[in-house]
Amino acid sequence: MTDLYESPFVRVEEPASATAASPNGTSASYEDEDDAYEDEEQRTDHSGGSSSIGLPPITPGRGKPNADEVFLRNMLGLLNKRGYNVRESTNETSTASSSASLTCSSSFTSTGSSTVSSVLLALREPNHGQSPLHIAVRRCDMQVLDALLEHESRDELLDVPDSNGNTALHFATGHWRRPTSVNVTEKLLAAGGNVHAENKRGLTPLGVHMLTLKIDNPTLVAKLLEAGADPNTEAEGLAVLHLAARRGLPVVSAVLTAFGASMLSLNADGLMCYEVASPRVKQFMARSINRTPPAYVSMTQRCACMLCKSTTLVSHKKVLGNMVKRVLGMHMRTHPSNCYHCGMLFCSQCLKPSTAVSAIPFVRDDDATCGKIKTCRLCEAVLLDRKKKQAAQHVFDMHVRGIHPTMQMTR
Q: Which domains can be identified in the chain, with CATH numbers?
């Protein structure tokens, strides 16, 4: 924990140069050059002078400074020492040439006209309008990050956008390659980071993460979804589940499906996520279907079997039977050509009565009885595997309780 109320940085050294190098000796960048959400950190002082932050002076004769004043002086001293190229900016249209020192105008007076929050919110990096929190996240500077998040002004700092509309959470999720990205994201979410915030490109933190994600690592995806992110959010006009399916990320696709991402969302070609996914991704998505049943695909959306592409979804015998039932006023199935488990549309040859109904984790609000529930081949294989695992778990639980299965049967 970083306590800036009692910090050695209260005695500030000479300001760092605006061209200070990053910790690795080179100019720091937002992320890789091929990342669409990276921007280079430029440390050139456009004003021609020092880019350091002037410290608010302690007014003589006031006695011992209050805690907020000490915190602010220590924080500004820490930012100077770390080479943060931030300056006071009163509005979004201010340029790098309009640098201003936080001197008397930013000092604390006896009337309390200025606050720590207003001073920290006014500090911006001149090239991209990034706040100290943005830079701390980008650099993975845990000391500055902890100090800012522990202060009472963190709620305002968390939602501050840079010139591109990115919040600190956008930066954290875009830096998934770094070892500390999960820790930084957890801290921002725990402090109340807004998972629904959109940048100027209409991207949420989840959208930014999915556009930059190259490997099948669902850690940050799960963290954002647990914090309330929308699993059906779009990135560049495409549902994030489409991105995962197209890139062949089965585990990420499974996590999104488990949190309610729709497999029916369409891409620019009018294809559903289920249709563009590889067999392995489809299997993972089917396994992750939980207590929320997927929506049924209607015959107006698709007119052919989604497996064998047959245009005869219902056999002639079934059509004749349905006509008789309709005349006699008998009950008819609402979705006779849909898989009960995944909701996709199949022909009578690809859709068979399920032998693992007990493994289905939900009950749909229709009139299907257990004996008539039909599933596709993929879902049936998934349900049978789940049924075997449930039986094995039951046997294990019985052994743990000291009850042998054969003894239970004799009772």
A: 1-163 (no CATH), 195-288 (1.25.40.20), 316-410 (no CATH)
